[in-house]
Amino acid sequence: ESKRRMSYFLDVFLFSQEDLALNSAILMWPRKINPIFDENDVLIESAKHKKENELIAKREKLILEIEKESRCMEEFTEFAELDRMQQYVTDVRQLQKRIQESEEAAQFINKEEELFKWELTKYPELDKLKVNIEPYQKFFNLVLRWQRTEKRWMDGGFLDLNGESMEADVDEFSREIFKTLKFFQMKQKKELQEKRKAAKRRSLGEERLEEEPKENPTITMCSTVMEQIKVFK
Is the sign of the CA dihedral 203, 204, 208, 211 positive or negative? Predict the structure, then answer.
């Protein structure tokens, strides 16, 4: 439209050289700006690819971290020394912190995936870790609390003791340890059933001797603490 009007004005009006240059600059603007737009498109596409690659690297790094955390979680099932309970509690807290950081990383990754309009990545192993670590965290803290309480009663001032409150505390410890023992026994039973089902599917009907369940260190510790409480009572 500007060009059409300019053609008319050039026929009926005598422009100064300065005005001609100004109007020429306006009409020639697309020729100058379009290459800049094209260059900008290339820059944006390059930045997009870079961010996409960074996001893929973040996802892979998170998956590796979750695998490491799962291996650490498996180590808890082998913990068997009551005199190292303080270390066990520390280990659980450190792993819980790592799981929390992984959860935050997963949320950040999902937000970036939304921006790229990608399908959101799910991390079911991370959810399993959060659930599975909870019983160990409770158990290790309970045992440590019992150990410290018993030491305070046995080594502290005799006149500071209160028989009624001690009895109530001991009963509470006894109930909690019993509930924990039952939980881990049920957990072991369920895992054994799942292993047997999987073994049956693999064997395709072949007869196999059933393996005896291995001794569970966590259950052994529960039983030992229950016996300690019983002796103390």
Answer: positive
